[in-house]
Amino acid sequence: MSQDPWLLTPGPLTTSMQTKEAMLHDWGSRDASFIEMNARVRDAVVRIADAEGTHVCVPLQGSGTFSVEAALCTLIPRDGKALILINGAYGVRMTKILDYANRSYITIETPEDTPVDLGALDETLSADKGISHVCVIHCETTSGILNPIADVASIADKHDRSLIIDSMSAFGAIPVSAKEIKFDAIMASSNKCLEGVPGMGFAVIRKTVLEKCQGNAHSLSLDLYEQWVSMEANKQWRFTPPTHVIAAFDSAITQYEASGGVTGRNKRYSNNCRILTEGMRELGFETLLPDELQAPIIVTFKMAADPAFVFETFYDNLKDEGYVIYPGKLTVAPSFRIGCIGALDDTHMNNALAVIKKTLSDMGVTSGTPAT
Ligand SMILES: Cc1ncc(COP(=O)(O)O)c(C=O)c1O
Predict the structure, then answer these.
(1) pTM for the whole thing?
(2) How many CB atoms lie within 10 A of CB 208?
(3) Which atom of ligand 1 is nearest to the CA of 63?
(4) Domain 260-363, what fold?
(5) Would you say residue 319 has pLDDT above 70?
(6) Which residue, 259, 192, 261, is CA-closest to 14?
(7) Is the peptide bond before 198 cis (omega within 30 degrees of 0)?
(8) Nearest to 185 by CA among 74, 47, 63
(9) 112 Cα to the center of ligand 1, angstroms
(10) CB 10 less than 6 A from any atom of ligand 1
(11) Residue 192 Cα to ligand 1 middle (Å)
């Protein structure tokens, strides 16, 4: 098999051969082997959240957004009110979800290169007793910024409000413990830092909260209460399960645990991030974020000012050399992003940098320095 391009993106990601090979079978959704595999995956996800005994894992077909939408609409009752902390596109997406679901919400917005505003959160929760839920993005993939979810959790807890965390691009690589951070739900998907393939997401939800969520959801297929009750009753999925995705996820989690779990994953991604950032800075590029705000997930670089730097050509040339990068998603400044996650290590990052250097030279770009 010829080598697929390496995906330096926020997902879908490069997966290991073992993960791909796990999909070379067929499973009946009622087979004992499939049911066992599904239970193993659900247990492992709860373990990764350090939430055994308090929370349950409710998996759902679809991309990550399906699980975010399902969790918001299952947990927030129709007469509830959310406070959404926004510093990028995924916070904005939560507002769109709640618009569709006809739930009321307010927002506190900070710029894309600034963490969510803890002071404003505290003040708003003091002032508005009608807010039932606080929603926050763990790593805002728009910029790659790491939000202070432990602080958000303690403020939400102080005001006795429910916390929902979208940890799509952080779960499994940035440690999170339900014993230390009080949340009612945390959502992620199979194909980000746990390195499965795309096709399913999940929410890890506090059991005592989920038990009270019957009738909240406005959508049959996105009702995580019904998904949970039904899965607990017969161990099967309500609707056709993404069997191959679950098999790949099961294999990916086995590899994850064998390589040191969250500690191992965080170490490899942090090293990838360091190599990438240092190498790009040597070429003159500037990161959007200072290192202390950067999650080791995806790095935003400001667009080079050199007129010879044309992003589309840069992208295409890198793709031809076997590396896929990602356009920027910032509203404030032209940028592009390079991911550090997926089945990639220091060799891949160093090779990618060598290819970037050669591409810039072929394009006649003398420096990656952005406009001031
Ligand atoms: C923080 C965050 N939330 C939600 C999503 C949406 O996930 P999906 O594109 O799989 O629907 C993403 C995707 O990258 C994300 O990074």
Answers:
(1) 0.98
(2) 10
(3) 10
(4) Aspartate Aminotransferase, domain 1 (3.90.1150)
(5) yes
(6) 192
(7) no
(8) 74
(9) 16
(10) yes
(11) 9
* C-alpha torsion sign, points 68, 70, 76, 81: positive
Tens of pLDDT, residues 59-112: 999 999 999 999 999 999 999 999 999 999 999 999 999 999 999 999 999 999
Same fold across 18-258 and 260-363: no
End-to-end CA separation in angstroms for the chain: 46
Question: What are the boundaries of each domain within the chain?
Answer: 18-258, 260-363
Rg (CA), the chain: 21
Residue 321, pLDDT above cutoff 70: yes
Tokens of 222: 């996105």
Quick one: which of 228, 248, 244 has its CA closest to 59? 228
- CB of 359 shorter than 6 A to ligand 1: no
Give me the DSSP letters along 257-315.
HHTTHHHHHHHHHHHHHHHHHHHHHHTT--BSS-GGGB-TTEEEEEPB--TT--HHHHH
- CB-ligand 1 contact for 137 (6 Å cutoff): yes
3-state secondary structure of 177: coil
Query: Which secondary structure element, helix H or strand E, spans residue 211, and what is its range?
Result: none
pLDDT at 39: 98
Evaluate whether the domain defined by 18-258 bears CATH number 3.40.190.10. Answer: no
Give the count of alpha carbons within 13 A of 363, CB side only.
Answer: 24
Residues with Cβ < 8 Å from 145, sequence gap 6 or more?
A: 87, 88, 112, 113, 114, 115, 139, 289, 293, 294, 295
